Amino acid sequence: MYMFLLILSAADLIPNVEAKSSFVSSSCDSGNWGAFLSKNCSGGAFCDYLYALALRANQTGHIFFTPNKQRKYSSKMKANDKGLLILIGGSVGLFMVIIFSIMILSQRRNTPITPLDKHACKPALSALLKDSEILEVSIEEVYAATNNLLDLNFIGEGTSGKVYRGILSNNQHVAIKKIKKITEDGFGETFIREITSLVRVRRPNLVPLVGYCENESESFLIYELCPNGNLSERLYGEGKFLSWIQRLEITIGCARGLRFLHTFHEGCIVHLDVKPTNILLGAKFEAKLSVFGLSKVMNLGESCLSSEVRGSFGYVDPEYQSNGKLSTASDIYSFGIVLLQILSGRKVINMNMKKPMPLDKIAKSVTNNGSTLEFADPKLNGEYSVEAFELIFEVAVLCTGTKQQRPDIRQVEVVLQEAVRISMRMKGSSPYNSPDLSEIP
Questions:
Q1: How far apart are CA 167 and CA 290, in angstroms?
Q2: Which are the catalytic amino acids?
Q3: Is 69 annotated for ligand binding?
Q4: Tens-digit pLDDT profile for residues 62-112
Q5: How far apart are CA 410 and CA 299, in angstroms?
Q6: Which region is the signal sequence (predicted)?
């Protein structure tokens, strides 16, 4: 037995003997290999070697007859020990974070909302509206004006709420929007943002705010009523029609509204939701931009990183959607889509094709095939200036290109005004409201 062991380990017999043969007596049943081997050891170098093996066995639970195997196993054990420490430390850290989070949430849940919390924004809002012409309307008058929000008076629904037609006590015809409840206090971010924007920016091409109403459970915004509805109804409604000159006037009105927002002296305002349903038409089909609940105020010429992407499907700038970087170029993209809709009479996604395709992609494919006029709305029946059509089509495609390709709103407005001049020269005169071409920056 002994000779076999010595021969077996003769090549590598270099034990790491760090302790003497004396060992605390114990049985192998208790896992103490040193005691088990020392009971049968007759002493001397061989006994010391067995003792070294036993010492390693106590540490690892294995017996190795070569130091190479010992070193390999020892390295593995050290790596396992390190991993185990990291796992234990991470688990303890995670446990502490969970406990801390539960304590914070519990504390917040148990903190009652005081009346001051519910109306924290009201003093600031009152100060903002102090010298304005905007009315504070009672909740009773809102319900009386709309016949208790009767479905018959329902006009439409936007991103921030449903809109109803109504008549105030002073006989003014208005559009009343019920703001969706966003926060627990019912006095949502959209409500404040839209009032703040509309108080500061009052222009002919922006729908004016007439009044507001809020209580603990409901919030309303009251606008001037535009009698000819919105652009979407006129483009796609059954029996509805817009002439070429009317379409040009609408594009000019939208561009002027955006230019005012983008160059506002107190801070550039990005609308973020330019689309046909948010372009309202006055008595003479003059365009007015509406809905500022998603708008963002920034310094002129700057871009910012947004934590959430705002806007409507089909009109959101793809670059803003992918990287969250917001600038006026995002409105230019949306306006480019609207221009393509005005030219073609098509919706933002063509569902009649075998493979549904976004409108900007259709426009780019038309450009590549050299068949621009095939893009024209059949309702126009050819009654438009080809030169003006191609001019607007070209700028619309640029607006929906990459951010670097897009013109700013001043450049777009100049092109649109040139298209109007070309069309008026061709027609000689127009039976419709002639656009004011004097307002070129």
A1: 19
A2: 273
A3: no
A4: 444 455 555 555 565 555 555 656 666 666 666 676 666 556 544 444 434
A5: 17
A6: 1-19
